[in-house]
Amino acid sequence: MQLNPWEVGVMFWAGHGPWSQSGDPGESIAALKRLGVRCGQLGVPGDLDLACASAWRDALARESFTVYTVFAAYNGESYADIPTVQRTVGFIPPATRAEREARTLAVSDFAAALGVPSIATHIGFIPEDDTDPDYIAVREMVRRVCDHAARNGQKFALETGQEPAEALRSFLIDVNRENIGINFDPANMILYGTGDPVEALGILGEHVLSVHCKDGVWPPENVAGALGRERPLGAGDVGMERFLGQLKAIGYRGPLSIERETQDRAERLRDIESAVSLLGNLRHKLL
Ligand code: MG
Predict the structure, then answer these.
(1) Which value, to the nearest 10 degrees, does the dihedral of the CA atoms of residues 196, 280, 181, 230 take?
(2) Can you list the alpha helix ranges (DSSP code H) found in the chain?
(3) Sorting pLDDT into bands at 50, 70 and 90, what band is 1?
(4) Model confidence over 46-55: pLDDT tens digits?
(5) Which structural domains are found in the chain, ordered by start?
(6) How close is the Cα of 44 to the center of ligand 1, in Å?
(7) How far is the CA of 212 from the centre of ligand 1 (A)?
(8) C-alpha 148 to ligand 1 mean position (Å)
(9) I need a surface site. Which of 16, 103, 112, 274 has the fewest CB within 10 A?
(10) Which residues of 135-164 are buried (b: 16+ CB within 10 A; e: fewer)?
(11) Is the confidence at residue 186, as pLDDT, over 80?
(12) How far apart are CA 95 and CA 118, in angstroms?
C-alpha cells in the first residue's frame, strides 16, 4: 500500500498490553484502525516469541495495514530516571551486549519476514569520548547490526534521546554505513534536558529515516537525574507546528508516528485520537 507524504501513523507494541489483551495481531490492528490510521511502527518487547512473525504478516496483509519500522526493546531495560537509563538501556550495558546483539539480528529477520524495510532501537547513552572502550564496542556492534540489516534490505534507525545533536551526528558519520540513520523523537531531547529539538533536527536532517510525534515538558531544575514528563501531543514544550515546519524545511516526506506511552489504556487511546486529529490539521495547513 502506498502511503501519503506525512501519513499519520502510530507507534504500537506486539504482544499483550494496551493494544491487545489476547496478544492477537488482528486485535491490535483493529484497535489502531479504530483510531483512524492505516500504518505504524511495531515495537517488539524483549520477551516476545518471534515465532509470531507469520501471524503478523498474515494479519497485516488481511487488514491492508502497513508497518514501516520494527522497533526492538530488550529484557531488563528501565526508563525510571537518567542514571537507570544509562545503566540498563540499549547496547551500552556490557553484560547484556552479546545477548541484545543476537536479539537485534533476530528482530531484523522478524521484520524481513513481515516485509518491513527498516528496524530501529534505542541504543542508549553513547559516550561522547570516541576513545572510550564502550564507545568503540557499541560502534562495532552498530556496524554489525547495519550489515545484517543490509542483507535483509533494511535501514537501521537509532532512536534519538540523550545525545546532543552534534555528538550523534559524529557517531553516525563514524559508523560509516549507508543504511544507518535516526528515528527522530523531539520529546526525548526535552525529557532528558539535552537541547532544543527543532534546532537539533536542523543539524541531523539528512540522517532522518522516520520520526516520532511525541510531546513532553523539561525536567525539574532542582532534582538531579530526573527526567521530564511526557504529555499528550500539543500539551508539552515541543511546539508541534514548529517541529513540522522544520520537517518540511529538511525535506522529510515520510510518515508521522504518534508515540504516547502513558500506562492508562483509555487515556492513551484518547490522547492518540486527539493527536491524529491535531496532526491531520497541521498536515493540511503546512504540507
Ligand atoms: Mg520515541
Answers:
(1) 50
(2) 25-34, 53-63, 82-88, 97-114, 133-151, 165-175, 186-191, 197-204, 240-249, 265-286
(3) confident
(4) 999 999 999 9
(5) 8-286 (3.20.20.150)
(6) 14
(7) 5
(8) 23
(9) 16
(10) beebbebbbebbebbbebebbbbbbbbbbe
(11) yes
(12) 27
Q: Which residues contact 286 (CB under 8 A, 6 or more apart)?
A: 241, 244, 245, 248
Long-range contact pairs involving 214-222 (C-beta distance under 8 Å, separation at least 24):
214/185, 214/186, 214/187, 214/188, 214/238, 214/258, 214/259, 214/260, 214/261, 215/186, 215/187, 215/240, 216/187, 216/188, 216/190, 216/191, 217/190, 218/190, 218/193, 219/191, 219/192, 219/193
pLDDT at 77 over 90: yes
What is the Cα–Cα distance from 109 to 240, expressed in whole angstroms? Answer: 34
Contact 122, 137 (CB under 8 A): no
Tell me the three cell numbers of residue 63: 487488514
Q: What is the pLDDT of residues 120-162, one digit of tens each?
A: 999 999 999 999 999 999 999 999 999 999 999 999 999 998 8
**Angle at CA of residue 249, ends 244 and 253, nearest 5°:** 65
Which amino acid is it at 143? R
- Residue whose grid cell is 518471534: 50
State the Cα–Cα distance between residues 282 and 81, nearest whole angstrom: 32
Q: Quote the ligand 1 centre to 255 CA distance (angstroms).
A: 14
For residue 62, count other CB atoms closer than 10 A to its CB.
Answer: 11
Q: Which of 144, 72, 61, 57 is nearest to 108 (CA)?
A: 72
Cell numbers at 124, concatenated: 542508549
135 CA from centroid of ligand 1 (Å): 22
